[in-house]
Amino acid sequence: MNIAERLHHVMAAEQTVTRLYYTLDRSDYAGASRCFVPDGIWERSGNALHGHEQILASLNKRPATLLTRHYVSNFLVLEQSASSARVAFNLAVYRSDKGEAPALPVAGTVPAMLAEVECELTCSEQGDWLIRRLDPLITFTA
Length: 142
Prior knowledge:
single chain, alpha+beta, Nuclear Transport Factor 2, Chain: A, 45% strand, globular
């Protein structure tokens, strides 16, 4: 792989991770589940969710009044090939659920959680980078 291809893969992997949290924050749970390969695994809230159906079922249990914003930082590619990558990043999560539709801006919030995340991605035959495994380790909570 030349440097341009390596950089393209890094950006594509980072965009997949960013898309996951963007769709999650907008309650587009089907879109979030599509960021994974069909048999992808998401270690979430102490449970290993396997595949699109389990991921979607878990996300659909979130309260309709929940507002979240996920912020990815310190994105680092640990291993990379033409068809797979292992990355690490920090994830800060802001959340608010007052039992009713949130009024913006939400006042008085601090990050509810900070996690160190490892993520394995694979490139599909169509050239799309998708998450094979997402494994956060919560390091701080509010």
